[in-house]
Amino acid sequence: MTSMSDNRNLRAQLETLPTEAFRPDLAGIDRLPTLDIALLMNGEDATVPAAVADQLPQIAAAIDAVAERMAKGGRLIYAGAGTAGRLGVLDASECPPTFNTDPAQVVGLIAGGPGAMVTSVEGAEDSREFARADLDAAGVGAADAVVGISASGRTPYAVGAVEHARALGALTVGLACNPDSALAAAAEHGIEIVVGPELITGSTRLKAGTAQKLVLNMISTITMIRLGKTYGNLMVDVRASNEKLRARSRRIVALATGASDDEIEAALTATDGEVKDAILTILAGVDAAAAARLLAESDGHLRRALARAGR
Predict the structure, then answer these.
(1) For residue 181, what pLDDT is reported?
(2) Known catalytic residues?
(3) Alpha-carbon span 15 to 110, nearest angstrom
(4) Taking the complete model, does pTM exceed 0.85, yes or no?
(5) Sorting pLDDT into bands at 50, 70 and 90, what band is 239?
(6) What is the mean pLDDT of residues 108-126?
């Protein structure tokens, strides 16, 4: 059980964090018309991209390091508690349908386990031990990249995950929303998006959550670009698992090749719906087997495969 002195110490720590600061100028927002509150909130949200921009060199360096690990077969693993953990799980879950990754390639770990996605798990975020156990259960090793996520930058689960991952030899990234955070200090790559006090005091699902989502979008998306999962800005590794995505697959092939509908249908049929292979058969004038071979020899990079085919 947490002692009264521990509670006082934690309160004192939180009071020093910009994300926990009280804004006296917003103390009367509950008396304002809804439109005025929405205008205030929108104005606060508009400051987030500039805070992200301040950390772009650090973000880019982290992405290059993550992509290097993944190109050699490593995984990208997010670890966080509460909102931060949910954002990590969300980003990880979007990678298979968007980039046709194996679900095990990008993984989201949340303090308290999967149930914590919808229900708060008491005390889970306060445990470094839970983080170590979750990483060990996932088999984290030196080939992997682990991104700890915490708005405060002090959450024991996120800090513990990064510390344990680093001890295992994994690449580590610490994503926080306060300066001089323990999380950034524990990681090889520290990213601190300083968004300042929230509209609702301490509600870091707001600006801090938005900042974390923007950075996670960058980490996963740009890593996948580096790994050849796109051709230009086209999702050529998209998994066509429903009618919408099948229609999108046809459109992507059309945009990449300029081919007729009949050519596109024939190419997608011949390549079993593989967009990247279908584009290669059209642009390089090769059959499906040759396209698959060229892509395998090019580590899945369509531009490299086209170059191999003399295109």
Answers:
(1) 97
(2) 94, 125
(3) 25
(4) yes
(5) confident
(6) 84
Question: Interior CA angle at 16 toward 110 and 195, to 5°?
Answer: 65
Distance, CA of 210 to CA of 253 (rounded, Å): 33
Asked whether residue 30 carries a pLDDT value surpassing 70, the answer given is yes
The token pair at 46 is: 């508009």
CB contact set of 249 (below 8 Å; sequence gap of 6+): 238, 240, 268, 273, 275
What is the average pLDDT value for the chain, to the nearest integer?
93
Distances in whole angstroms, Cα of residue 306 to Cα of each of 239, 262, 276, 279, 300: 21, 22, 11, 10, 11
* 199 phi and psi angles, rounded to 5 deg: -55, -45
Count CB-CB contacts under 10 A for residue 297.
12
- Taking the C-alpha atoms of residue 125 and residue 82, their distance in angstroms, rounded to an integer, is 7
Q: Give pLDDT tens digits for 167-194.
A: 999 999 999 999 999 999 999 999 999 9
Residues 98 and 225 sit within 8 Å (Cβ to Cβ): no
Distance CA 219, CA 213 (A): 10
Q: Per-residue pLDDT tens for 74-112? A: 999 999 999 999 999 999 999 998 999 999 999 999 999
